[in-house]
Amino acid sequence: MTAKRVLISMDERLLERIDAAVSRRGLTRSGYLAQLASADLEGERGPVGQGSVSSTLREVEDAF
């Protein structure tokens, strides 16, 4: 699979939280965001498709 470079915009505070999370987990920002996107998209086809991934992400965002 060929990786593509993309440019996205997001809230600065959210980006700071993402950077803190990837630092704790020893991941790259790109890898972390790719994992989240993949998990969310896979959830559309499996038991997680009932919104639990999206709900959990919203809960985490709301906590900060």
Proportion in helices: 55-70%
Give the biggest sheet: none
Distance between the termini: 34 Å
Overall pLDDT, averaged?
84
Protein traits:
64 residues, mainly alpha
Question: Can you lay out the helices and strands and say which pair or pack?
Answer:
Layout: H1 12-25, H2 29-43, H3 52-63
Can you put this structure into words, describing what you see?
This protein is mainly alpha-helical. The protein has a domain of 26 residues. It is built from three helices and no strands.
Give a nutshell description of this structure.
By secondary structure, the chain is mainly α. 64% of the residues lie in helices and 0% in strands.
